Amino acid sequence: MYFKYLIVASKKDKAGINITTQLSQFPNSAFNFYLVEEEIIYTENLNLEKINRYDFIIFASKHESSKKEKTLSIHAPGNWRIAELGGKSREISKTSALFQKQLFEKLNYNANSSGLGEKYKVTLECTHHGPLLDKPCLFIEIGSTTEEWEDRRAGFIVAKTISETIKNFKPNPYNEIAVAIGGPHYCPNFNKIQLNSNVAISHVIPNYVFPLTEEMIKEAIEKTEEEIDFVLLDWKGLGRKEQRDEIIEILDKLYINYKRTSQISK
Q1: Cα four-point dihedral sign 59, 60, 64, 67
Q2: What local confidence, expressed as pLDDT, does residue 266 receive?
Q3: Residue 238 phi, psi (nearest 5)
Q4: What predicted TM-score, i.e. pTM, was given to this entire model?
Q5: Which helix (H) or strand (E) holds 8?
Q6: Four-residue CA torsion sign, 146, 78, 165, 54
Q7: Ranges of H-type helices in 91-168
Q8: Do residues 235 and 261 lie in contact, with contact meaning Cβ atoms separated by under 8 Å?
Q9: Which of 45, 83, 128, 189 could join 38 via S-S bond, C-beta 3.0 to 4.6 A?
């Protein structure tokens, strides 16, 4: 159970300031704010002594993409391979599959019920970039240009989502817990499962970091707060047959159960 939450944003981040400003309209004794002078993806910019006083960390941030899509997104931080944007190479932060699922469900509901979902795509992202924390955490982001970062409606919906999820978080809703493997950065198949099934997804390992290693899977399982029930495979998103066979061989070697996305009722 999480009792004390910390909302972290950079003073240099227009989306982060937008979200935290809007969040001040939702007073809640369960969370506090921490505004950082520099970029929050770099662990060295954070006061870890302060962060470690809290049970769960939520990073409110901008999202950038080359396609400049309008997005509201959620993901866990960490680096499957070389750390190019904060954190450490081949290490990921702790996260909660249950909190991530409930936050994503609430974000999707609030965006669509307000009409904002017609403008923005609500999506998971795979685990990527820093910082590296030993506290459970995740990012919630507005993308992907200054226009969206400063959009007060988007900031309000994200703030409302954070506040409501913290207030109504259910620590034991009997979800099945999974680490997800395969597919592209924005997780289209995993989005459907996170929204429409009993499965709660924590870390996502995308196909562009393959070849998959035993260490990646062990890291994903170890850095998930809840006990993992199985690994979820985006079968077509695993690539060629030889690559799929290698992944199955690793999972079998580690005695880890797995299911294809097509096997999940949604």
Answers
A1: positive
A2: 75
A3: -90, -10
A4: 0.97
A5: strand 5-10
A6: negative
A7: 97-114, 146-149, 152-168
A8: yes
A9: 45
The answer to whether 200 and 100 have CB atoms below 8 angstroms apart is yes
d(CA 87, CA 81): 11
Query: What is each CA distance from 155 to 24, 70, 71, 106, 108, in whole angstroms?
Result: 11, 13, 12, 14, 14
Under the banding of pLDDT at 50, 70 and 90, the label for residue 173 is confident
Three-state DSSP class for 170? coil
Contacts of 49 (CB under 8 A, 6+ apart): none
- Quickly tell me which residue has 């949604």 as its tokens: 266
187-246: per-residue pLDDT in tens? 999 999 999 999 999 999 999 999 999 999 999 999 999 999 999 999 999 999 999 999
* CA 88/CA 93 separation, integer angstroms: 10
